[in-house]
Structures are given as structure tokens and as C-alpha cells.
Amino acid sequence: MSLRTSRPARAGQYLALLCYLVFLAFPFLWLISTAFKPARELGSLHPTWIPDSPTLENFRQAFDEQPLLRAAGNSLTVALSASLIAVVIATPMAYVMARQRSRLATAATGWVVVSQAFPFVLVIIPLFLVLKNLHLINSLLGLIMVYVVWSLPFALWMLVGYVRAVPAELEEAAAVDGAGRLRTLVSVTAPLLAPGIVATAMFAFITAWNEFFFALVLLKSPEKQTLPVILTHFLGAEGVADLGPLAAAAFLATIPSLVIFAIIQRRITGGMLAGAVKT
User: Fold this and answer.
1) b/e string for 65-88 if b means 16 or more Cβ within 10 A?
2) pLDDT tens, 67-101?
3) What are the beta bridge partners of residue 241?
4) Environment class of residue 138 by beta-carbon count within 10 Å: exposed (0-12), middle (13-18) or buried (19+)?
5) CB-CB neighbours of 121 under 10 Å
6) Would you say 200 and 272 are in contact if contact means Cβ atoms under 8 Å apart?
7) Residue numbers of the chain with a pLDDT score lower than 70
């Protein structure tokens, strides 16, 4: 009886997962289809999944109309810097919070979770005033600082979980063998945290790469704008989108996120305790 009930349940789970994957994949597949359609197919009353006459003209127009490479360079600079700084700051903080079980650490963890519920609009005005006093408006450095502060709570919360998953007994065993605190952290704890650090850094990178609101408000010079802001330039004054070039540019902008997620999956499935071998 249990097998009969488990098989339909499992089939239902797979069906639900398949529907969810289709739901997620539909916008991306439609984006790819639109990016390769010629103008006459984009205006057709009977759209098709596969373009009848695939073309790269939309990509050429996208690069001709907007400085996509410069914007991608700005986004890459900001995202890489913000993710690396956030991880460097969050890693030692997460270790202390995970190993020191105190009321202060518990309160800090709760604040990290609560802070993620604050909407962007709630902080943009005071944030703008602070950056204005620091002369960091219309500056990539100012945007990097904003992304670091914004991604730090999530990075800290994520790394605390990874640190707690590392058995404290391994550090105690290293101490018994005569290893100092610094040697234990470098030789034992750090290698075990590597998958978590990489995954956290990549999530922070994707967050900064895709962020739009802060970049729109804080960056005014066209030469400093990031890729999500540049994509809005494909919209006309009356809100009419240049659909082909917009789809092509948006497709190119999603490629780094897809690559990053593929790398994250490989790093996480590698196992956190890989390499926990005493030498």
C-alpha cells in the first residue's frame, strides 16, 4: 500500500517540478527567440517560437545604438569589487557569530534577517544624502559601497550556516596536535569553507550585476552607467520599446548570471567536507 501511495506522490512531485521549470524557462526561451527574429516577424500578429529567418541584426543594432561593452565593464567592475569586499568582511564575522553562541550573536543574526525586509525606497533618500556629503554621487566607488552594505547581511547569514556545518571537533583535533589558532583557521577551517565562500561571493556578484534601482538613482553620467540602466535606453520617449535590440542586449546581459549559477551548482554539489583529511 505504501508503494502504491508513494509512486503517485513521487510522480506528482516530478510533475510539479516540471511545471515549475517550464514556468521559469518560458521567459528566457521567448527572450532568445525574440533576439533572433527580424523586424517583420516581431510585428507579426501570429508570433512563433522559432524564427522563420533567424538574424543577428538585432545584436548589431544593440551595439550600434548603446555602449553595451562599456556598460558591461562598469557592471563587472562594480559587481566583482562589491562581492569580494562583502565576502572578505563577512567571513570573519560569520565565524565569530557561529562559534560564539551568545545573545549578542543571536540578536545580530535576527537583525540580519530583518534587514532584508527593508525596501529599497525606504533607504534611498538617506543613502543619497550620505553619499552626497561624501562626494560619492555619480561614482562607481559610491555604488560599490552601497552594494557591499546591501549584500553584507545576506552574505553574513549565508556564511554563518556554512561555518556551523564545519565540525568544531576538527579544530579541536588540530589544537591537540599543536596547531595554533591561525594555523587551524588557515589549514583546517578555510579549506572546508571554500565552497561556501565561493557560493556566497557568486550570489553577491549576481545581486550587484542585476541591480537596477540604486544604479539608476546614483549614476547620472552615461559613461558610468551599468548594464541594467543602459537597457532602459532601448525604450522610447513614449514607452515604445525597440524590441529586437532590447531582447538581444537583455540576452547578452543574462549570460554571466547563467554561467555563475552553473559554477555555483558545481561548487555546492562538490561537498563542504571534501578535503577534510588529516595530514
Assistant:
1) ebebebbbebbbebbbbbbebbbe
2) 999 999 999 999 999 999 999 998 888 888 887 77
3) 235
4) middle
5) 8
6) no
7) 1-5, 102, 104-106, 108-109, 112-113, 115-117, 181, 236-239, 265-279
